[in-house]
Write a structure and sequence with these properties.
With 380 residues, this protein is an alpha+beta fold. It has 14 helices and 12 strands. The chain folds into 3 domains: 38-84, no CATH class; 91-156 and 164-235, CBS-domain (Roll); 250-332, Uridine Diphospho-n-acetylenolpyruvylglucosamine Reductase, domain 3 (2-Layer Sandwich), CATH 3.30.465.
């Protein structure tokens, strides 16, 4: 039995092979920016790179989440990502009426109160009005400023009979200092409402500024958009530890009427009030009951005003300010309210019958006869 070569890992008796210079496969060179895989797909299936988006959308629409290999959450986020290109900043912004902002001369003590009530980490800072913004203030910068002012000298603190906890002397902080004197206001982005959301996201990433004011063509403030607002367009609502359940309330009163927050969705109002609360095609134009109310009135109604609603309903404005409606009462009418055209037709019909009933009779007691026929031709 032949002995195996101890210097070789080949088993004894195994056939020997002479080493050969085998060619190493090399991916085909790029041609006009296309790699070999794309060219193969194009040749075999007629695939084109610019239809990948449409193909993915068709797949998501044609099959269920389980059949595609994606979880329901993955499918939902993929759909949202595909639709992000068509969304504009004006679609995701917080409206002007809901912006919480502070004036640049606000005192630090008051600023702390605003931060506590707002529950936000960033607040818009303006000069005289919200149409004259100068930037934003971050709560971390405020805390850093106050910590720097309260930090005591370590040597002096060590000599104290009772050293200050954490070396901080909170009495050294002047809560009456105006915000403008602290120099902690940061820059803010200014964008038009027509800007694509995906472009704003890229700009926020590049500038590291995560808050943008939405301004109109005249420079007025329309709304506010944060990076969280954009991310929520992909993953859905994000609620942190400080977010409260802010679902607008719709409550029914003992008399059968309903009191609704003007921000309540029309679909939610219909679900609670009933399907007879039919707003027609307006459901495609406005989202909230407040928006529908303004559309019905043709202007911004004032507090206490009664606005006609759908056939069996009317609205009473319970709370409003010069910028928006806040609370509205929905009243169900006992009888169907006539529309102006229907009322006009009924009045015309009543007038016609009334004129016939009061027409003078002929001397022979017969009703007067019209002696003209068609086209005004006198009959024999």
């Amino acid at each position: 039995m032949p002995e195996s070569d101890p210097s070789s890992s080949r088993p004894a008796g195994a056939p020997s092979y002479e080493p050969r210079n085998l060619p190493v496969p090399v991916p085909p060179a790029r041609n006009g920016g296309e790699n070999w895989f794309i060219r193969a797909l194009r040749a075999l299936f007629g695939w084109k790179p610019n239809i990948a988006r449409a193909d993915l959308q068709d797949v998501l629409d044609a099959i269920g989440p389980g059949d595609s290999g994606f979880t329901p959450d993955e499918s939902r986020m993929l759909r949202n990502i595909l639709g992000l290109r068509e969304r504009r900043v004006g679609d995701v912004m917080v409206p002007r009426a809901d912006i919480i902002a502070v004036q640049q001369d606000i005192k630090l003590g008051e600023l702390m109160r605003v931060f506590e009530g707002a529950g936000h980490s960033r607040l818009v800072v303006y000069n005289d009005t919200l149409d004259d913004p100068i930037g934003m203030v971050h709560i971390r910068d405020l805390i850093a400023f106050m910590t720097a002012r309260a930090t005591a000298n370590p040597e002096k603190n060590a000599k104290r009979k009772k050293p200050l906890p954490a070396g901080l002397d909170l009495k050294a902080i002047n809560l009456g200092t105006p915000l403008s004197a602290t120099k902690i206001a940061r820059e803010i982005l200014f964008v038009p409402p027509s800007m694509r959301v995906i472009d704003l996201l890229a700009r926020m990433q590049a500038t590291r500024i995560h808050l943008a004011l939405v301004v109109d063509e005249y420079g007025g403030t329309d709304g506010l958009a944060s990076i969280e607002d954009i991310v929520e367009q992909i993953v859905g609502d994000i609620a942190d530890e400080h977010d409260e359940d802010a679902t607008p309330e719709i409550t029914q009163l003992p008399d059968g009427s309903f009191v609704a927050d003007a921000r309540a969705k029309i679909e939610d109002v219909i679900a609670i009030v009933g399907n007879d609360f039919d707003v027609g095609d307006a459901i495609d134009d406005v989202d909230t009951i407040g928006g529908y109310l303004v559309t019905r009135a043709g202007r911004l109604p004032v507090r206490g005003e009664i606005v006609p609603g759908p056939d069996l309903f009317e609205f009473e404005v319970l709370d409003a300010d010069p910028r928006r409606v806040k609370r509205v009462r929905i009243i169900r009418l006992k009888e169907r309210r006539e529309r102006p055209r229907e009322a006009r037709k009924r009045n015309e019909a009543d007038g016609m019958f009334s004129s016939v009933a009061t027409s003078p009779a002929a001397p022979d007691g017969k009703s007067p006869r019209n002696d003209t026929g068609p086209a005004g031709v006198r009959q024999p």
